[in-house]
Design goal:
The chain is mainly alpha-helical and 321 residues long. The protein is built from eleven helices and no strands. The longest helix has 44 residues. The chain is elongated and about 90 Å long.
């Protein structure tokens, strides 16, 4: 299975965690004596360093584990695909995706990183230079990794998208297509988990919106794309099949005329009931309630941390008065 089998998820994450911990400790970011100009306290710097130490290993481990699970989901869909080569192409998009994802992923990550930090400023500053360099390099590495991870996820989503174009389905038995939906929802769950680390930036109990706004924007857009993109073809097919059956029933209802007997009335009622059932049948493989809950999970971690920070400050003021 290519890189997926060669790099164990847990071991890869722990190795990267050790490297980042050594780097941030060496630059002084984990115990700063001198603060960069933008930092308000030592706890703020330590919180940023902890986030930059923990988030990249999480992304590496989660990306490897998620893509392994994607291969399992493809095998679950294989009996429903008439052309086995389509499943093989989807597997290839995942297995070989890591090698080619660096090409577009690194420039994307570089742009996102430069929007969040300035390595040149960190290099030329005279106050807290070592700490500033450590945090700036950590942010650049994090965003480079996010760029590659997003491209890997998008290519896996493209494989599932192709399967959605050819997989067989029964309009009243869509449960067998759940592997298609789980692929995107799993990526959304990984992103929601990553956001759970971001409140470390408020370790000093100070909420700074600029620390969260870009991350939330990228997380929200990526979550929607990774869920909707692979499911759009099957959604269009389900919606078209629904409309075809509704049109056929409408034609039967129109040809029935005014019911004269009990049997004709019962037949008309059956047609109307079946039509209502078709109209109420969802064309997506997930419910809107599920998506709304996932989107809520994206913002709960920072909001929970902000709430705790506010309570902590209120308690401190009450005790000090």
């Amino acid at each position: 299975m290519g890189w997926i089998s060669r790099f164990p998820a847990t071991a890869s994450g722990l190795t990267l965690l050790a490297v980042l911990a050594l780097w941030l400790a060496w630059t002084g970011a984990l115990s700063p004596d001198e603060l960069p100009h933008y930092a308000g306290s030592r706890r703020e710097v330590i919180g940023m360093a902890l986030m930059l130490m923990l988030l990249p290993p999480y992304f590496v481990s989660a990306t490897i584990a998620t893509r392994r699970h994607s291969l399992t989901l493809i095998e679950e869909l294989r009996p429903l695909v008439d052309r086995p080569e389509e499943c093989d192409r989807a597997r290839a998009a995942i297995v070989r995706g890591w090698r080619t994802a660096w090409i577009p992923g690194l420039p994307i990550g570089l742009v996102m990183g430069l929007l969040n930090t300035s390595p040149l400023e960190a290099w030329t500053t005279s106050v807290g230079r070592s700490v500033h360099l450590g945090l700036s390099a950590g942010q650049m590495f994090l965003w480079l990794l996010i760029g590659v991870a997003l491209v890997v996820g998008f290519r896996a989503s493209s494989g599932f998208r192709r399967l959605g174009e050819v997989v067989r389905f029964e309009l009243f038995g869509l449960d067998h297509l759940k592997p298609l939906a789980r692929a995107g929802l799993l990526d959304m769950l990984v992103i929601a988990g990553a956001l759970a680390f971001t409140p470390l930036q408020s370790l000093d109990a100070e909420f700074r919106w600029y620390n969260y706004q870009f991350g939330l924007l990228v997380a929200g857009a990526a979550s929607i794309l990774l869920v909707v993109w692979p499911l759009w073809p099957i959604h269009v097919r389900i919606r078209a099949e629904k409309q075809r059956r509704i049109d056929a029933i409408d034609a039967l209802i129109g040809a029935a005329g005014e019911p004269m007997t009990r049997a004709e009335t019962a037949e008309l009622e059956a047609l109307l009931a079946h039509r209502d059932r078709l109209v109420g049948l969802r064309a997506w493989l997930f419910s809107t309630d599920l998506i709304s809950r996932f989107l809520l999970y994206l913002i709960i971690p920072p909001l929970a941390w902000v709430g705790a920070a506010i309570v902590e400050r209120l308690v401190d003021r009450i005790l000090a008065s």
